[in-house]
TrEMBL record:
<dbReference type="Pfam" id="PF07992">
    <property type="entry name" value="Pyr_redox_2"/>
</dbReference>
<dbReference type="GO" id="GO:0016491">
    <property type="term" value="F:oxidoreductase activity"/>
</dbReference>
<feature type="domain" description="Beta-lactamase hydrolase-like protein phosphatase-like">
    <location>
        <begin position="3"/>
        <end position="108"/>
    </location>
</feature>
<dbReference type="InterPro" id="IPR029021">
    <property type="entry name" value="Prot-tyrosine_phosphatase-like"/>
</dbReference>
<protein>
    <submittedName>
        <fullName>Sulfide:quinone oxidoreductase</fullName>
        <ecNumber>1.8.5.-</ecNumber>
    </submittedName>
</protein>
<feature type="domain" description="FAD/NAD(P)-binding">
    <location>
        <begin position="146"/>
        <end position="259"/>
    </location>
</feature>
<keyword id="KW-0560">Oxidoreductase</keyword>
<dbReference type="InterPro" id="IPR005939">
    <property type="entry name" value="BLH_phosphatase-like"/>
</dbReference>
<dbReference type="Pfam" id="PF04273">
    <property type="entry name" value="BLH_phosphatase"/>
</dbReference>
<dbReference type="InterPro" id="IPR036188">
    <property type="entry name" value="FAD/NAD-bd_sf"/>
</dbReference>
<dbReference type="InterPro" id="IPR015904">
    <property type="entry name" value="Sulphide_quinone_reductase"/>
</dbReference>
<dbReference type="InterPro" id="IPR023753">
    <property type="entry name" value="FAD/NAD-binding_dom"/>
</dbReference>
Length: 551
């Protein structure tokens, strides 16, 4: 826990967690302010979790969420009210502490001069110089420039940077990402089934980034594509010749009423968060009987097969333990089909029938009452309108609704749906020729999977270099995506497909028939794909994914 002391009675910090609160209480803190909106990060506890634990320690907790880079004068005014009324010492936190420091700086004027505010920031190790325009100085904020700027250091961003450097080792590249940890998210299904340890799916961000890339550890606030500029929190400016946008998705936990209050307790879990996947496995092991509900929200979501992967692996464990007959397994899918590519549905249905799973299509989870163990769903009616349905549970695995990050949805780069608006073949932005997008936040109609990003990264790398005049020709992405559907421990239905749901197997059917459960496919998922991710994809090794290039 890194505290930055701006005054004798006020500090800021990066994201805190429930175990940190006891230490904060021992340090004397009497109140905390959360400036980070829920759902920004995959490993982020909700404010409700923090508030509940703080209350037990007699610490006041207040919620003033502010989107990164969008601290308004009204936000500062509300923050000033907290500074004037809350007991001291007082701590404010966000993802990195920067939003909280910005709020403090703006709220501290005119009681403190600009020089005093900047000096306090410097002593605390917080650069507040980007606020000089708002506080009253005519000086401009710092600016830097690179040949290629990549927004997002997830699978797509790191793979693209490595593919670029494999082709042009001397290229000047910067990656913008505030996260300290890089996650192998496809492994969380296996964590939730007790196959992987959670720590094997996480590595320090600095250890996975290419050595020759400049890491700008900050959050993006806005884009100015007509000026070839990215605006960071604190009003810093990064200029580019070519921009690659791949920030991933936002998990909207708050879209389901009552969910943040009960996540990680009362039998409510999700493999879509790093810290909750182990709780899934704990619940599966402990459940002796009752009702186990698995949900899937409206599309698009990352890895559309993940909701039912959790269901199949849990059911397999209960069958092996001799408890499946005592457990009613129910799947509530907001969509109309078990899987989007019909060729793989027959194999999946055999497992649905074998496990005795009750399928419910058109049901969207809208509310959870953890204490009462009740879940509420909305269901669209054939003639229009909707109805609500409430049911009890002993275990509830939730997949939250998902959308592009806020700073993407409100930017000039977004289409009407909020996605980065790119051509589905070239992955070049439809309006800005020196902007490319890949990964989960783009408008392309492919499955949002790590396998898709692995295929997209070399395409973007080639096309960026062609735009810079380093190479020639145009690379195209065919919509490839892959979903290893873990139907039981030791067996996988390996779904691989292109745009339009066209089946596209990597291996001949005599090795792995993707339409049937396969032990070799499980070996691929368990033993081969993780090292292929860490040592291949993230290192720019393009095995089986070299792009097609035309003149």
């Amino acid at each position: 826990m890194e505290l930055k002391k701006l005054t004798n009675t006020f500090s800021v910090s990066p994201q805190i967690r429930v175990p940190d609160l006891a230490a904060l209480r021992e340090m004397g803190f009497r109140a905390i302010i959360c400036n980070r909106p829920d759902g920004e990060g995959a490993d982020q506890p909700t404010f409700t979790e923090i508030e509940r634990a703080a209350r037990e320690l007699d610490i006041e907790a207040h919620y003033l969420p502010v989107e990164s880079g969008k601290v308004s004068d009204q936000d500062a005014e509300r923050f000033r009210g907290y500074l004037d009324t809350l007991p001291r010492p007082l701590l404010a936190y966000c993802r990195s502490g920067m939003r909280s420091a910005t709020l403090w700086a703006l709220a501290s004027t005119p009681a403190m001069s600009l020089v005093e505010i900047l000096a306090a920031g410097k002593r605390a190790g917080v650069d507040l110089s980007g606020l000089t325009r708002r506080i009253g100085s005519p000086h401009q904020s710092a600016e830097e420039q690179h040949d290629v700027v990549i927004v997002g250091a997830g699978a797509a961003g790191v793979a693209t940077a490595s593919s670029l450097l494999a082709r042009a080792p001397g290229l000047d590249i910067a990656i913008i990402d505030p996260a300290d940890v890089h996650y192998y998210q496809p492994g969380w299904t296996m964590v939730g089934a007790g196959v992987f340890r959670p720590e094997t799916t996480a590595r320090p961000m600095g250890s996975v980034l290419p050595r020759n890339v400049r890491w700008i550890k900050a959050a993006v606030a806005a884009f100015e594509p007509t000026d070839n500029a990215v605006i960071l929190e604190g009003c810093r400016v990064v200029k580019y010749r070519q921009l690659v946008v791949c920030p991933g998705l936002k998990l909207d936990w708050n879209a389901i009423e009552g969910l943040p209050q009960t996540l990680g307790r009362n039998g409510v879990t999700s493999n879509y968060r790093y810290d909750l996947a182990p709780y899934t496995w704990q619940l599966v092991q402990q459940l002796k009987g009752g009702r186990a509900l698995f949900t899937q929200p409206p599309m698009p979501i990352k890895c559309a097969g993940a909701p039912q992967k959790a269901m199949y692996l849990s059911s397999d464990h209960w069958r092996r333990a001799g408890r499946l007959n005592q457990i009613n397994v129910e799947f509530y899918n907001a969509g109309a089909a078990l899987f989007g590519v019909a060729d793989y549905v027959p194999a999946l249905m055999k497992y649905v029938e074998s496990y005795g799973i009750d399928l419910n299509f058109g049901f969207n989870l809208t509310a959870v009452n953890g204490e009462a163990r009740r879940a509420t769903f909305a269901r669209a009616l054939p003639g229009g309108g909707s109805e609500t349905f409430e049911t009890g549970f002993d275990l509830l695995h939730v997949v939250p609704p998902q959308k592009a990050p806020d700073f993407i949805r409100v930017s000039p780069l977004a289409d009407a749906g909020g996605w980065v608006d790119v051509d589905q073949a070239s992955l070049r932005h439809k309006a800005y020729e020196n902007v490319f997008g890949l990964g989960d936040a783009t408008s392309t109609p492919n499955a949002k999977t790590a396998a898709a990003a692995r295929k997209q990264a070399p395409v973007v790398a080639h096309n960026v270099l062609a735009a810079l005049g380093v190479t020639r020709g145009a690379a195209t992405y065919d919509g490839y995506g892959s979903c290893p559907l873990t139907v039981e421990r030791g067996k996988i239905v390996l779904a691989e497909f292109l745009y339009g749901g066209k089946v596209a197997p990597t291996f001949p059917s005599w090795i792995i028939d993707g339409k049937k459960p396969s032990g070799l496919a499980w070996l691929l998922k368990e033993r081969i794909l993780p090292p292929l991710y860490w040592r291949g994809m993230l290192k720019g090794r393009e095995w089986f994914v070299q792009p097609q290039v035309t003149d």
